[in-house]
Amino acid sequence: MTATEDVLVVVEEPAVTVTETVTPQPTTTAATPSSGGSSSPVLATLAGLPVKGRAPKTGYTRSAFGQAWSDDASEEFGHNGCDTRNDVLRRDLTALAVKPGTNGCVALSGTLVDPYTGKRIPFIRGRGTSSAVQIDHVVSLSNAWQTGAQKLTYEQRQDFANDPMNLLAVGGPTNQQKGDGDAATWLPPRKSYRCEYAARQVAVKHKHALYVTSPEAQGSLTRFPGHLSWGDDRLGEESGRCLQPSRWSSVVGRWR
After folding, report:
1. CA angle, 161 then 51 then 163, to 5°
2. pLDDT at 233 over 60
3. Would you say residue 252 has pLDDT above 90?
4. Which has the closest alpha carbon to 136: 100, 184, 170, 86?
């Protein structure tokens, strides 16, 4: 039924005619994953995400999500006296050296093992060198704007833009290649990270009350072993470990 209808129900004993009003409820959640992975917190979360059409990009600007890398955020690392970019660099780099006199804030150098490619990338702060390592919004700001963030408050969008769950240090060229792609349109070159990449997008969208489009929902499912595309050669051999409850259950608690 697509509108409210009157349904006639006849009860024979006693002879009474009853008229009921039935109001249909729209379906707005993702298709339920197959039962084989129902124990996975990632798949359960994906199944609960609203599915809607992508909203127009009209009105999107970077400033709608606050000052870039603002410390004024109600997320991990927020209000610690250091900008979010340096917070993520310190988290993700190894062999880290920090700039003296910055209270341990500013990353001067280090080595990144890029999760998207698996390559080891040296980071050296400076004009012409810093861009070798960039900070990626796993769910891009543009994608977020078109899947629910338009209706968030300014403060909520600023929190989203500075949430470490949604931020990864990655190689600059790969980050530029990704652009604002989502799980349906872009995958990390490193096959063994594709499942975790899709799972992180699911986590972020759940946490910040965003929705997914139908291609995103189905695209995410195809990244998960045992669901729709198990055996797909886009999945790496290590992907099967991505959905293990022991790996994600402690994180899921933070999503909710």
Report:
1. 15
2. no
3. no
4. 170
Q: For the segment 64-78, what is each residue's pLDDT rounded down to a tens digit?
A: 999 999 999 999 999
Q: Tokens 């594709």: give the residue.
A: 194
Question: What is the value of pTM for the model shown?
Answer: 0.79
pLDDT reading at 113 higher than 60? yes
d(CA 220, CA 206): 13
3-state helix, strand, coil in the chain (%, to 5): 35, 20, 45
Q: For residue 4, give every residue at least 6 positions away whose Cβ sits within 8 Å of its Cβ, in sequence order, or none.
A: 21, 22, 23, 24
Q: What confidence tens digit (pLDDT) does each residue in 94-110 have?
A: 999 999 999 999 999 99
Rounded to 5 degrees, φ, ψ at 12 are: -75, -35
d(CA 29, CA 210): 12
Q: Which residue has tokens 């072993």?
A: 225
CB 66 within 8 A of CB 72: yes
